[in-house]
Amino acid sequence: MIILGVILLVIGFLTGVAILWTIGIILLVIGAILWILGAVGHSVAGRRHYW
Q: Distance between CA 29 and CA 1 in Å, rounded?
């Protein structure tokens, strides 16, 4: 998600398309938050198995 965010940022910057720039920033921030949560040991969207 972080890599996709960076790619969209670069494409949006080079082409001047503001929506790609905005989506790239959002994906970059969400990816960084999920990466940090995973690094400190929190389960993100964990699943419970009942069997």
A: 9
d(CA 12, CA 21): 5
Tell me the DSSP string of 6-40: HHHHHHHHHHT-HHHHHHHHHHHHHHHHHHHHHHT
- The distance in angstroms from the start CA to the end CA of the chain is 32
Average pLDDT over residues 4-23: 91
Give the C-alpha separation, 28 to 9, whole Å: 9
* Residue 23 confidence (pLDDT): 92
Structure token digits, residue 27: 């994906």
